[in-house]
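Morning!

As promised:
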Amino acid sequence: MRVISVANHKGGVGKTSLAVHLATGFSRQFKTLLIDLDAQGNATKWLAGSQPATGIAESLLQEDFPLALLAGKTLSIAPASRGLTLLDTVLPTRPGGQLALRRLLGRLEGGFEVVVIDCPPSIGQVVVNALAASTDVIVPVLPSMLALEGVKLLEETRQAVNTNLQGKAHMLGFALFATDKRESVGKQVRGALAKNFGHHVFQAEIRRSTSAVYLPVKGKTAWEPGADVSGAKDYAELFNEITAALAARRQ
Ligand SMILES: Nc1ncnc2c1ncn2[C@@H]1O[C@H](COP(=O)(O)OP(=O)(O)O)[C@@H](O)[C@H]1O
Ligand SMILES: [Mg+2]
């Protein structure tokens, strides 16, 4: 089972957009689960229309609480619930609280082949849980030099989780989000990311797009014909690069 966290310390950088497009993309080929770990529930509302009262938080806090999945044919969603706001204070008081999600995935039934995790914009117990349960991490970044700060803390946390919690979260790469090819800052950010962190920066970029902004309220993805023309092309290219990177790592 591949478990891919889409994470960044900052908000508004494209985590939810990328997680939703990755999960729907993978679900065409694999039995896929999208876990929404952001209390705001943006991914849940995007794909399921509304947010149920209980969801992933209750299953992390009470290990015998059954994980309620909103299930489609090949894509299931572990919905965000309000209780996620409690996790940062409650989980540290529990023995092994940092590994609650890893344990939950260990006992998950349903034969999922790919799990995509939409992370909240913070570095706390929830993201530590996500990283500790992940095989791979993808970090969307805005084309701004300020982007590097948000990445640094996440990268330090990933390394600490791998070292101290026997994690195996591999940094698959950075994906530039909401770019404009006419602006040179995207190129500078690419160079700075590669230089500072030594990780792959995906060639494909998600270009800035006005129609993309309406996708969550319409409950659509860019994959649907005409929904977001540049997005459809960009997400397809990025998705191909990501699947190639995942396949290369398996060998
Ligand atoms: N291609 C795009 N170009 C510009 N803005 C976009 C694009 N796709 C999504 N957005 C907008 O960017 C904002 C942040 O995206 P989101 O995926 O919610 O980021 P995060 O989960 O990191 O907070 C949202 O308001 C969304 O509507
Ligand atoms: Mg989000």
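Residues 15-16, 38, 42 surround magnesium ion (ligand 2) (CB under 6 Å).

Hope this helps with the figure draft.
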